[in-house]
Amino acid sequence: MKKKAVVLTSGGLDSTTVAAVAKNEGYELYCLSFNYGQRHLQELESAKRVAEYFGAKKHLIIDIDLKIIGGSALTSDIEVPKHREEKEMITKIPITYVPARNTIFLSYALAFAEVLQSNDLFIGVNAIDYSGYPDCRPEYIEAFEKMANLATKVGVEGITKLKIHAPLQNLSKKGIIELGLSLGVDYSITHSCYDPLPDGTSCGECDSCLLRKHGFEQAGVEDPLHYAK
């Protein structure tokens, strides 16, 4: 039987590359996405395409209303930053940070993995091109993995050791794109924009769009997405 992997799947470039890594390592994919009150649902359409593309055994989309909590440009009526230099993006935690989002998502993934009797969770966090998000750092992933093994039945009983895989942790956006292309990823099915147009077209000006475009430029590969600007 194939090993089972729970893969956090946002429909973005990074999580799609992570799905390709898990698939390439022989895992059967169980994709997990969230309708968390984000200002647009384009990413969920991309997540569905990604799960189908990799032949996921199951794809769950869980509803969580983080809009009630707010505090982020992705869940509240706060303007998404545009036209920022990359060095400016990492000077402080940006307003696009969603409070505790990765902790919430990983907690659901942990529960899903325990029910599936899976030892492996995959997440597309990155400590280089990460826009200053605190829950993308290696020490955060290490701490959550330790907590996961203290907080679950399988961990406490010593039945298994849960592992959080973050294979993109130390890669630049260029490196992530090159890795994905080497694994045959079709990046036209992905979506990265924080503030897309009503028709789903990427704005081309937010931090996520700029990092993505720069990554493709550095890799010397054309980005298959169309941008408004």
How would the blueprint of this fold be written?
Layout (H helix, E strand, L loop, with lengths): L2 E6 L4 H12 L2 E9 L6 H12 L4 E6 L22 H4 L11 H16 L3 E3 L15 H14 L1 H4 L6 E3 L7 H10 L24 H13 L10
Parallel strand pairs: 1-2, 1-4, 2-3, 4-5
Helix pairs in contact: 1-7, 7-8
Shape field: globular
Q: Which structural class should the secondary elements be placed in? A: alpha/beta
Sheet with the most strands, sense and barrel status: 5 strands, parallel
Order of helices and strands: EHEHEHHEHHEHH
Instruction: Give the terminus-to-terminus CA distance.
Output: 47 Å
Q: Helix count?
A: 8
Task: Tell me the number of structural domains.
Answer: 1
Helix content: 25-40%
**Strands, total number:** 5
In the CATH hierarchy, the third-tier topology is known as Rossmann fold
The CATH first-level class comes to Alpha Beta
Strand content: 5-15%
Spatial strand order of the main sheet: 3-2-1-4-5
Quaternary assembly: single chain
Radius of gyration: 17 Å
Return residue spans where pLDDT drops below 50 for at least 5 consecutive residues. Answer: none
Q: State the CATH architecture.
A: 3-Layer(aba) Sandwich
Name the features.
single chain; 229 residues; alpha/beta; Rossmann fold; 5-stranded parallel beta sheet; 8 helices
Please characterize this protein's 3D structure.
With 229 residues, the protein is α/β, with parallel strands linked by helices. It has one domain (3-192): HUPs (Rossmann fold), CATH 3.40.50. The protein is built from 8 helices and 5 strands. Strands 3-2-1-4-5 form a 5-stranded parallel β-sheet, with helices on both faces. Helix 1 links the parallel strand 1 and strand 2. Helix 1 (13-24) packs across helix 7 and helix 7 packs across helix 8 (207-219). The longest helix has 16 residues, at 101-116. The chain is globular, with a radius of gyration of 17 Å. The mean pLDDT is 93.
